[in-house]
């Protein structure tokens, strides 16, 4: 069961590894990011960053979509982590069973507008987030489980 879908350009880092996996009892992390999935060094680094006992898969959007039928049958608590809004939208356009997305970290690039403390969305990313909102996806900003959740859909 997918317990959390998150966008975070850092993919796996302290907040994800320690806070979210522990709080949600995560058994498997699925990273959906073309750059990570096609770079052996990044794959190795992510494998070193994952918590002991938690399984890790690293896929492109296309690979992840092709495996969702099997993922749905797993008896595990799963966290999906996307590296950016573009790949998240591409995934959700095909796989419409993600009801909400947690925004954990998107860096400032160009003329980005700040949403929350660690979310900066440029015009293209805002349009992608609006498209997810129009698809009925609840989007919220929350760094760690103990921090306050902000409704991103209301801020767009």
Compact summary:
By secondary structure, this protein is an alpha/beta fold. It has a single domain, classed as Fructose Permease (3-Layer(aba) Sandwich). It has 7 helices and 9 strands; from the N terminus they run E-H-E-H-H-E-H-E-H-E-E-E-H-E-E-H.
CATH class: Alpha Beta
Distance between the termini: 29 Å
State the helical fraction.
Answer: 40-55%
Spell the H/E element sequence.
EHEHHEHEHEEEHEEH
Class inferred from helices and paired strands? alpha/beta
Number of domains: 1
Which runs of at least 5 residues are low in confidence (pLDDT < 50)?
A: none
| Overall number of strands | 9
The number of helical segments is 7
Indicate the radius of gyration in whole angstroms: 15 Å
- The spatial strand order of the largest sheet comes to 3-2-4-1-5-8-9
In CATH, the topology is named Fructose Permease
Mean pLDDT over the residues? 95
CATH architecture label: 3-Layer(aba) Sandwich
Shape field = globular
Oligomer: single chain
Strand percent estimate: 25-35%
